[in-house]
Input
Amino acid sequence: MTRHKLQTSIIGIFLFLLGYLLAVSGPVRAQEVSLSISPPITELAIQPGRSFSQVFTVKNNGVPVTVVAKIFPFVPFDKEGHAELIEDQNSINAFTGWFFFDTNPTSLGTTASHDFYVKITPPAGAEEKDYYFTFIAEVQSDNGLGINNSKAQSRIGANLLVSVSKGGTPGKKASIITFAAPKIIDSFSGLTYEVLIGNLGSSFFKPVGKITVDQILGSTTTLNLAPLNVLVGGSREISCIQEEELTPCKMPGKFLIGIYRANLSFTVDGSGESIEKQIYTIAFPFSIVLGLITIFIIYRLIRRLAST
Output
């Protein structure tokens, strides 16, 4: 085989492989499931025997799919606000009579959306307490679109928090489990506050309040608490909020010095008695002092060596 024929063969093989990869990778990239749902959460206080209707809008931003609506109860999973779905059939059957919605498969084309109407009716004999559910839009696995199994099983959900109370005003009670920060810090290490709030009542609530930090003989800083739901029987780590963004409850600035008195104060859902706790932190530039001591020792050693 001449050099010219060899070069031609290599180029031909390269172009064949390139064309094959483009032909295969193109459709794979397109086969993506992307769903959104609104509203992401519904909070409801309702009397037994009464009804409430909610609309959940599911929008498809990916390939055409077929979805089916489901509702599962859930329980709080951890202190970060995650939930664990209860998907065993007995638990699902226990609440079958609470909900009326269309369970037939619904086809969604690309950019299409569908409104799911859900009617909620707690039975007249329902116990007065909180019930937590997640409305699920789940992609059917037998969609025939060539989507791989993991994507075919994709789902998206919106939480539904239901407080059942005959008087319409369920009891709410909060406690401060943890309000903490280091007692002594280096001036350059930063100061972050940990807030853990527990729910001792019979209904979920949001803490509405702030952390007020006073530097003794200095300025005052206010850190606003994020109004995150704390569910019954559980606790929740509470972040702070700044310009509608969740942030750590951290003092601004890169250098702190002095005594800082922090006061946590909040109310349940913005009303009632204020719940408060106060802590202190001392900030001192230990790193600077240590650096100066190190420099002084090195200097003395150099002087001593130079004099011998």
Notes: The chain has two domains: 32-164, 174-289. The helical segments are 3-30, 89-94, 149-152, 286-307.
